[in-house]
Amino acid sequence: MVGALVGFLVIYQSLLEQAKLHFNVIPAMTFSLLYPVLLGMLFALPGLWNRMKQDKAKGFEVGRFLGVGIPVLYVVAVPFLHYSSFPAPPLTRFLSIQYEGGVMLFSFIFGYLLINCIRKKESTHGK
């Protein structure tokens, strides 16, 4: 996992250097939003592995994904909405100004949530 983190940071650094040379920040911005999703998925894999061993990974928790995942995905998509011609609400402009590290945290949460929602729903019939 540390190797993946170091590799992602090296790629990100080279994309930042290319952005400074060619004045095109979209590839660096895209990578900076997607690699935390992959890291979040890597952090969630041990839990998925344990659920698979216990035969509890047979479904997807749609409620958790809709309640947490969709708003988090909106925050992750804010920088793309800011640079596109998509008509965005005022909150989008505010979040794109505050871009620094918060969106990366939300990207990590979204990646973790994608894997963590894979589980068997608990049965309430026996209680």
Fold and architecture overview:
α1 (2-22) packs antiparallel against α2 (26-53) and α3 (62-83) packs antiparallel against α5 (102-116). The chain has helices spanning 2-22, 26-53, 62-83, 90-97, 102-116. By secondary structure, the chain is mainly α. The longest helix has 28 residues, at 26-53.
Question: How would you summarize what this structure contains?
Answer:
With 127 residues, the protein is mainly α.
Layout of helices and strands:
Blueprint: H1 2-22, H2 26-53, H3 62-83, H4 90-97, H5 102-116
Helix pairs in contact: 1-2, 2-5, 3-4, 3-5
Q: What is the residue-averaged pLDDT? A: 80
Calculate Rg over CA atoms.
18 Å
Structural class: mainly alpha
Flag low-confidence runs: none
> Strand content of the residues, in percent?
under 5%
Annotation, overall tally of beta strands:
0
Question: What's the overall geometry?
Answer: flat
Q: What is the domain total for the residues?
A: 1
Summed up, the helix count is: 5
The N- to C-terminal Cα distance equals: 40 Å
- How can the largest sheet be summarized? none
Spell out the helices and strands N to C.
HHHHH
Helical content band: over 70%
